[in-house]
Structure formats: structure tokens, C-alpha cells
């Protein structure tokens, strides 16, 4: 009946429905979007239907109950923005949709977003980023289990391979481009039989891949192979709908091959054929390409005057086109900034009440911190001779706070969910005092440069403070992020040394000596989490060892393992407590030899972290005879 009549009929039908639900409205707007999109006179209506569809998902419960429909609505909105060349806004919309799908574990649909983001990057000539997103799309598509989905299982996969190859062509890397074009050809050959109803599309896909391969061979300088492939592309297949665009691109490549091989008569014949194809003259980009090729043919024939005229005209057209692109980019950026400002104002209004209480607390903490800093600066000006002792004392306070914070983290990580918010508030409030201490250490020596020993102590202060910030950052993360293990190749010997440096001042207070014997051990670990394990073990050794005793730390690297041992000569672990050491309870909590507080669950956290790395942790101990803890990590 035609699109306008179909739209009118559907509108009339929906108006008669009194019990419409959200699912009916979703289907309605999606179908109206498709209908309007097919009629160029209704392009504005298509944009309105997309916005109406997105508006249905404003309530959070609607998004969670219809995640796939919500993600497809975001995809449609991104496509609208992309069509309007609003690349930045389109990218943000795609990224928002992909983040939502990732949060609910829907990896398959993420592939569509990766493809769109790659397309935007390609249009903005960020080819390396485009390649990475198309590779990510292939990875996501490999996790799809929709065997009959021709779009995802065939079109998207071979399309991504071809797109990666095209990006490498723009990077002037024909070898890599050919590799991906050959992969696409092999994929089509192996999977064509799975989709017998799509023979026409598959034949057409083969033609497009041939054209891509020809372009790569031409860039390599193998014009003979390129010409052979292009001529094969131009053999019309009566079983498929012929694409004028593919013919234009193929003949353009063939024309350039004839120019490069100085076959100017053949080049002129192909160029004349190109000009006769539908829509070729109206396409400004292709028209400029024709001008350049015509100039090359004239130049090759010795008609330098006419060739120069064409080149000058083409350069002027290019200059005008560049100015237009700059104007369009400026307009897009302006609209983007306005959108960001509006979103920021909405966020400020929504969070105003929640921030007022935090601002009051921050003001008190900042005032206290500033008072401490002013006092330290005043004392430094009056008593320069006491600098070293003041810095040492300040570092000791930071170290004590860091150790206490470490125990607090271990205790609070095992507490119930209803304590989570309070934990984050406490951690957040600790950031400013620690920042004040670090800032105070920076300004202690404004008047004169510090000595070498003073500089080392200040550096220790900075490192201790940064470690404390790291622990606070982990608290402020979500529970899932805190438990996530992100491994990188790390030097275990350096991590252990940093723990020893942090605890050296605590050991000196008890006149203890820490002996460290190590071998270089590069192991894939999560640095922050494995640092907490080593720091816990060393802190316990210091805490439960008597004054003037020795602590021995040993690190050995075997063929495929790394073994750390921490040996003390302290109070040991009684037999009745040894079975509870690695449990997340307070049954094994004891006071240190100098009255240090203990929460009794640090070793439970250590065991979880070590086992998450695929390692083992155990100990050997006897009451009153000291304890040796061992940590074995796969290397």
C-alpha cells in the first residue's frame, strides 16, 4: 500500500488500543522508525521515532527488563547521529550502549557497537584505533551462539576482516591488508554452504573481496595480478543485483593501473566509461579523483598545459572542500560542548543534596589539615635544626597510619554488605589527611634544599602516602573490581623491597633487624594485591617478634615457581590456633609484642589473593619458637 499509507494505517490501529503496554510501544516505534527510514521524505520523522523509542527506557526497570531492546534503541540513535556526521556524539552514544551490554554480560550484541565505533574511527582517519575495534568485534562475534543469524555469523565477520584490510591499505601496508582480505575470502569459502538462501549476497561478497585484493596488489606494485583480479570483478553475474558503486571503484582502480603502467589509451577508455556510469559526475569526491586521473593521462601524453589546468582546478576544489569540512567540524564540536554542559548541569542538580553533607565534612578536614601544614611550616622556619627529627616522626606517623589502614581494609572487606557504604565514607575521609601529610613534606624544604638523608626520608613519605592512596582507591571501588585480578609481569624482588622499606621504621622502633636475601623473579601478578600479601606477612613478623630480634626474608626463583619465605623468632602460633589462622574470623586474633592491635583476618585475605593467583600459602611454627610463612606463586 506504500509507506505513507502503511504509517497512517498503523497509527490508526494503535489509537484504538486502550491497554497498550511498554512492549507494544517498543515494537510500534521500532517499526515506524524502519518505515520512515525507507522514505527519504520522512527522514525527519525517523529521527523523532528514535527519540520517542529511547524515551520509553527512561525508567531504570524498563531498561533492565528489556536490555536487548534498549541496546538496539541506543544503536539506532547512534546510527542517526553518524548519518548526520555527528561523530563525537555518535561515539558517546555507542560507548554508552556497549557499557550497558557489558554490565549485563551480553557480549554478542556488543559486536554491533564495536563495529560502529570502528567505523567512526575510520571516518576520522584514526586507522589504528579502527583496526583494534574491528578486531574486538571479531572476538565478540566468536562468542556468539546464534547459528542461524546470517547478519552476525556471516555478514559482520567477513565484513570486519575486509574493513581491517582496508584500514591497512590506508596505512600503506599492503602485505597486512592482503592477509586480512585472504582471511575474508577463506571465511566466505568455508561458510557459504551454511546459508543456502543467501547465495546472491555471498556471490556479491566474493566480488567485493576480489576488488579489495586487487587494490592491495596494485599498492604492492604487482599491477599484472591487480589487473587480472579487477577484470574478474567486472564480469557481470546475472544471478545477483549489480552494484554501480562496486563497478565505479573497480574501474577507478583499473584506470590507475593503466596510468601507472603508461597504457594511456586504455586508461582514457576506462575513465570515459567511469564518467558515463550513473551518479559519477554528481559525486564531488569521485569527480575530483577523475580530474586527477585525467591530468595524469594528459601529462603522460605530453600535454603539460592541460594537465596543469586540471591539477590547479582540482587543488582549488580540494581547498574549498577542506574549508567546508572545517566549518562542519567546528559546528559539531560546539554542539557537543553544549550537550556536555547540559548533562553536567543535570548531574549537579541531581547530586546537590548528597554533596552538601560531604562538603561540610571536607571543609572541617581541610581546615584541620591546613592547620597542621601551617604549624609544620612555622616550626620549620623557627627550628631548622629539628627538620630531620620532624620528618622522621612524620614518616613514622604515616607508616603507622598505613599499617592501621591495611588492617582496617582486611577487616572491613569481610564485613557485611550493610557496612559497605560506611567503609567508603571512612576511606574517602582519609584521603585528605594523607594528602595533607604528603603536601606538608613537599613544603618542608622550601627555604633550603634537603640533605641526601632528608631527601630519602621524604621520598619514603611520598611512597608510603601513595601506597595508602592505593589502598583507599581499592576500598572505593566496587566489590567486583576489588576481587578482580589484573596480572602484569612484575619484579617480586622489588615489591618485597618496597614492603621492607615501608616497615623499616616500625622495625627500628623495636630495634629489629630485617635480613633480605633474594633472586630476581619476574612473575605475572596483580601488583597491588600481591603487595598486600607481602606487606601483611612482614607486618605480622614485626608485630609478633620481640625487640632486638632478627627477621629473615628469602626470595628464590625456580624453573616455573617463585618461593617467598618470611621467618621470625617471635612468640609463634600455639597449636590450638593454627587451624584458625587462615579463617576470616577473630578466633586467631592476638596482641603484638609491643601491644599492637590485630584484627585477626589479614591472613585470610592473603590466602584468598594467593589462591586467586594460582599459588599456595602455608606456615611452620611452634609456640614460643617463631614462625616461618611461605608463599609459592606460579612463575
TrEMBL record:
Domain of life: Bacteria
Family matches, as SUPFAM superfamilies: ATPase domain of HSP90 chaperone/DNA topoisomerase II/histidine kinase, Homodimeric domain of signal transducing histidine kinase, TPR-like
Keyword terms, alphabetized: Kinase, Membrane, Phosphoprotein, Transferase, Transmembrane, Transmembrane helix, Two-component regulatory system
InterPro entries, per database record: HATPase_C_sf, HATPase_dom, His_kinase_dom, HisK_dim/P_dom, HisK_dim/P_sf, Sensor_HK_Regulatory, Sig_transdc_His_kin-like_C, TPR-like_helical_dom_sf
EC supergroup of this enzyme: transferase
Database matches in SMART domains: HATPase_c, HisKA, TPR
The enzyme's E.C. designation: 2.7.13.3
Transmembrane segment boundaries: 358-378
Reaction equation(s) it catalyzes: ATP + protein L-histidine = ADP + protein N-phospho-L-histidine
Domain Histidine kinase as annotated: residue spans: 425-635
PANTHER family: SENSOR HISTIDINE KINASE RCSC, TWO-COMPONENT HISTIDINE KINASE
Name recorded for this polypeptide: histidine kinase
Record organism: Dyadobacter endophyticus
Amino acid at each position: 500500500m506504500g509507506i505513507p499509507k502503511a504509517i497512517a494505517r498503523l497509527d490508526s490501529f494503535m489509537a484504538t488500543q486502550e491497554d497498550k503496554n511498554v512492549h507494544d510501544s517498543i515494537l510500534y516505534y521500532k517499526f515506524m522508525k524502519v518505515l520512515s527510514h525507507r522514505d527519504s521524505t520522512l527522514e525527519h520523522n525517523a529521527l523523532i521515532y528514535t527519540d520517542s523509542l529511547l524515551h520509553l527506557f527512561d525508567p531504570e526497570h524498563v531498561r533492565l527488563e528489556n536490555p536487548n531492546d534498549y541496546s538496539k534503541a541506543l544503536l539506532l540513535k547512534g546510527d542517526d547521529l553518524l548519518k548526520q556526521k555527528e561523530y563525537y556524539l555518535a561515539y558517546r552514544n555507542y560507548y554508552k550502549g556497549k557499557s550497558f551490554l557489558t554490565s549485563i554480560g551480553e557480549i554478542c550484541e556488543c559486536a554491533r557497537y564495536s563495529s560502529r565505533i570502528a567505523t567512526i574511527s575510520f571516518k576520522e582517519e584514526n586507522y589504528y584505533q579502527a583496526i583494534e575495534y574491528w578486531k574486538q568485534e571479531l572476538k565478540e562475534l566468536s562468542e556468539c551462539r546464534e547459528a542461524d543469524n546470517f547478519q552476525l555469523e556471516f555478514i559482520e565477520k567477513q565484513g570486519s576482516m575486509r574493513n581491517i584490510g582496508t584500514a591497512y591499505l590506508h596505512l600503506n601496508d599492503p602485505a597486512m591488508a592482503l592477509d586480512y582480505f585472504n582471511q575474508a575470502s577463506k571465511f566466505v569459502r568455508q561458510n557459504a554452504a551454511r546459508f543456502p538462501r543467501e547465495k546472491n549476497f555471498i556471490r556479491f561478497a566474493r566480488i567485493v573481496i576480489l576488488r579489495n585484493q586487487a587494490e592491495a596488489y596494485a599498492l604492492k606494485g604487482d599491477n599484472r595480478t591487480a589487473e587480472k583480479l579487477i577484470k574478474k570483478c567486472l564480469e557481470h553475474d546475472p544471478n545477483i543485483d549489480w552494484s554501480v558503486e562496486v563497478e565505479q571503484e573497480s574501474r577507478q582502480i583499473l584506470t590507475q593501473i593503466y596510468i601507472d603502467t603508461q597504457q594511456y589509451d586504455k586508461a582514457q577508455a576506462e575513465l570515459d566509461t567511469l564518467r558515463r556510469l550513473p551518479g559519477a559526475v554528481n559525486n564531488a569526491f569521485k569527480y575530483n579523483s577523475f580530474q586527477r586521473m585525467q591530468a595524469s593521462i594528459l601529462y603522460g601524453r605530453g600535454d603539460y598545459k592541460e594537465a596543469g589546468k586540471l591539477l590547479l582546478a582540482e587543488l582549488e576544489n580540494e581547498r574549498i572542500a577542506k574549508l567546508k569540512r572545517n566549518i562542519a567540524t567546528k559546528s559539531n564540536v560546539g554542539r557537543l560542548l553544549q550537550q556536555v554542559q547540559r548533562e553536567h548541569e543535570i548531574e549537579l542538580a541531581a547530586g546537590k543534596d548528597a554533596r552538601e553533607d560531604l562538603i561540610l565534612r571536607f571543609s572541617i578536614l581541610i581546615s584541620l589539615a591546613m592547620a597542621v601544614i601551617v604549624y609544620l611550616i612555622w616550626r620549620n622556619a623557627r627550628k631548622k635544626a629539628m627538620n630531620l627529627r620532624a620528618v622522621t616522626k612524620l614518616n613514622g606517623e604515616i607508616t603507622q597510619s598505613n599499617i592501621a589502614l591495611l588492617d582496617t581494609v582486611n577487616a572491613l572487606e569481610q564485613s557485611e554488605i550493610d557496612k559497605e557504604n560506611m567503609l567508603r565514607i571512612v576511606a574517602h575521609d582519609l584521603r585528605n589527611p594523607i594528602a595533607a601529610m604528603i603536601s606538608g613534606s613537599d613544603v618542608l624544604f622550601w627555604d633550603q634544599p634537603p640533605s641526601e638523608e632528608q631527601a630519602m626520608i621524604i621520598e619514603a613519605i611520598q611512597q608510603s602516602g601513595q601506597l595508602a592512596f592505593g589502598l583507599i582507591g581499592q576500598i572505593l571501588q566496587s566489590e567486583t573490581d576489588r576481587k578482580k585480578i589484573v596480572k602484569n609481569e612484575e619484579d617480586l624482588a622489588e615489591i618485597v623491597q618496597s614492603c621492607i622499606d615501608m616497615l623499616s621504621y616500625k622495625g627500628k622502633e623495636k630495634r629489629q633487624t630485617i635480613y633480605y636475601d633474594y633472586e630476581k623473579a619476574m612473575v605475572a601478578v596483580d601488583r597491588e594485591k600481591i603487595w598486600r600479601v607481602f606487606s601483611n606477612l612482614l607486618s605480622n613478623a614485626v608485630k609478633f617478634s620481640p625487640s632486638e630480634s632478627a627477621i629473615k626474608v628469602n626470595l628464590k626463583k625456580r624453573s616455573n615457581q617463585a618461593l617467598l619465605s618470611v621467618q621470625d623468632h617471635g612468640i609463634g602460633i600455639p597449636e590450638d590456633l593454627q587451624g584458625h589462622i587462615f579463617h576470616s574470623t577473630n578466633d586467631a586474633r592476638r596482641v603484638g609484642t609491643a601491644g599492637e592491635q590485630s584484627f585477626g583476618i589479614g591472613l585470610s585475605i592473603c590466602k584468598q589473593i594467593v589462591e586467586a593467583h594460582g599459588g599456595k600459602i602455608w606456615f611452620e611454627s611452634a609456640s614460643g619458637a617463631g614462625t616461618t610463612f611461605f608463599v609459592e606463586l606460579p612463575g
